[in-house]
Amino acid sequence: MSATEHSSSAPSTNWLANQPYLLLSITALCWAGNAIVGRLAAGHIPPVTLSFLRWSFAFLIILPFAWKNLVRDWDAIRGRLGIMIVLSITGIGAFNTLQYWALEHTQALNTLLLQSAGPLVVAVWSLVLLGVRLTLAQAAGVMLSMAGVIIILMHGDLTKLSNIEFNRGDMIFLVALAIFGLYSVLSLKRPDIHGLSFVAFTFGAGAACLIPLFIWELFARPLMQINSANLLTLAYVALFPSTLAYLCFNRGVQLIGANRAAPFFHVVPVFGTIMSIAFLGEHPQVFHFIGFALVLTGVFVASRKQSA
Fold it and tell me: What is the domain count for the chain?
């Protein structure tokens, strides 16, 4: 949920909307699933097609719930149309298309490592655009949680770091990460509108900006086959990492700010590891628990509100 949810007038009736850590944890869980599904979809659904259909379906899902708010907030949206278009292009259209494209060319291990740099990217954009510097606690938390992610991904063997090779997919994902960091910071400048209005507009505008690329891809790449696996993929990405995750992420950033929310990027690969244990039959090891402890400690330290 993003922008002003109007829940401040009745916080007791909307408990979840005022729980930033829970909202951001839900976001991380959904995005971990998106990385797994996106990797499985590589070679079956072209990246622009997957992104365009994802956001088109998400827009259709959210529109009936958002319509009244969207009509009421339209003047405010029109008054800040420039920033709303930029947010739609960066956070919706560009980031996700590049992510799916990257997953066609790189391994999951590499993307998870790169994603752990998300908080640093957000910190750079916050400094450049808003003049906001990381506090000592935030910097320490980022480093702790990044160390935990690396321990998990390296299975406790840090010598594996020297064997990682970065390729074109990794470079694409780095660009995607920089774009999403920009979106995270710019989202603080969105107009004072209801969260449903915000996601409905950005979902629709983000999908619309992909139409030229989508048409090009229809002629340049093999068409997506209509089968149960691909339809289930589209249903998942439209519902969970799109509609649910972006509502939660935008509201979480609104409540605690981009820098304090950014360490939750590190929870994504943690959830991805948990999913691999649960669904792929991998067995938990000591390094999992060490890594989880470091990640959670880092997120706690970095996302705490500083005392006055």
Answer: 1
